[in-house]
Write a structure and sequence with these properties.
The protein is of the alpha+beta class. It has helices at 3-11, 25-57, 65-98, 208-219, 229-236, 276-289, 303-313, and strands at 106-112, 115-121, 128-131, 133-137, 142-148, 153-157, 161-166, 172-176, 182-188, 200-206, 266-267, 272-273. It folds into two domains: 13-208, Sandwich (Immunoglobulin-like), CATH 2.60.40; 229-313, Immunoglobulin-like. The protein is built from seven helices and twelve strands. Strand 1 and strand 2 (115-121) form a beta hairpin. The chain is elongated. The chain starts with a helix and ends with a helix. The structure holds dinuclear copper ion. Dinuclear copper ion binds at residues 111, 114, 153, 188, 190-192, 196, 199.
Length: 317
């Protein structure tokens, strides 16, 4: 029985969303601090148990006033103060490094109920709009500015660093520097409503050249040819009032930008695999899949229309 919680604990030590399996400079500092704290707490725990054992074994022999006073001064004040001071010093020493300036690439992320509005600001280039899927260059410091207009969210990619709250009325700053390539997962870390647990995103860390190529593709209009039945249905049912698909008549700014939806690994902010069946299900039953989302369910559309829209969205690379 005891193995079950232990297995659960160990499962948290690896994978795409673990602060103990760091893939970023900031996360490495946090992991170092965690292990130092864990070892120090272990030492304190053993010392306290040892003292308790020692004291209970001496019940027959009453303490002299001098011994008791010494134990209280050393065990109760001097040693705890020294240990806590060492831990405090260790933690404070990491802070200037965590606050070091960011690089030339800036990314603005805005928390929404319940997804992530993403805007890349490449140095010298025009801003590039996206949602729910970050791609970052390895070995470069990236400066994030974080905001929200509805409620408090919190931006966290445990494997890379953070977390940082998004608070209405202010813009917070966070710098992340991925140190190895790979796929990671981020999540909202502040209870923000009915679908808080369904507010995730993906992070793909790639080589700088691959990142530049991705950003150039992302900046371009959608690659899907016009005239598809799905595009016609998308526009006829007013989807373009909330969503933008650059290169088409869809210019909405309320919901996620869908210009390159097909190139994102997940759907609905990290909760579903991005497949045609899931796209269709999301359109028809978003109220069940993502409770309290602002998008209404379009279950009243014909199945053929939903399938056409789902197919067309799958062409938006
Ligand atoms: Cu957004 Cu929790």
């Amino acid at each position: 029985m005891r193995a079950v919680p232990l297995a659960g604990l160990l499962a948290g030590c690896g994978g795409v969303q673990s602060a103990l399996d760091p893939a970023g400079f900031e996360a490495e500092q946090v992991a170092r601090l965690f292990w130092a704290m864990l070892v120090a707490s272990g030492v304190i725990w053993v010392l306290v148990l040892g003292l308790a054992h020692y004291a209970s074994g001496r019940r027959e022999k009453p303490w002299s006033q001098r011994d008791a006073g010494r134990l209280i001064v050393w065990g109760g004040a001097v040693v705890p103060t020294l240990l806590l001071a060492v831990l405090l010093f260790f933690g404070l020493r990491l802070m200037p490094e965590l606050r070091a300036p960011g690089g030339p690439l800036r990314v603005h992320v805005e928390g929404e109920q319940f997804w992530w509005r993403v805007r890349y600001h490449p140095p010298g280039g025009a801003p590039v709009e996206s949602a729910n899927a970050l791609v970052l260059p390895v070995g470069q410091r990236v400066e994030f500015s974080l905001s929200t207009r509805d409620v408090i969210h919190s931006f966290w990619v445990p494997a890379l660093g953070g977390k940082m709250d998004m608070i209405p009325g202010r813009t917070n700053r966070l710098v992340l520097e991925p140190t190895r390539t790979g796929e990671f997962r981020g999540a909202c870390a502040e209870l923000c409503g009915a679908s808080h647990a369904l507010m995730a995103f993906t992070v793909r860390v790639v080589e700088p050249a691959e990142f530049e190529a991705w950003l150039a593709r992302e900046a371009a209009p959608a690659a899907a040819g016009t005239g598809h039945a799905g595009e016609a249905a998308f526009l006829a049912h007013g989807c373009g009032a909330c969503h933008s698909v650059r290169g088409t008549a869809a210019r909405g700014a309320i919901g996620p930008d869908l210009t390159h939806l097909a190139s994102r690994p997940t759907l609905g902010a990290g909760i579903l695999e991005n497949s045609a069946a899931n796209r269709a299900a999301f359109i028809a039953r978003v109220d069940e899949i993502k409770p309290a989302a602002r998008m209404p369910a379009y279950g009243t559309l014909l199945d053929t229309e939903i399938a056409a829209i789902a197919a067309w969205l799958g062409m938006l690379r």
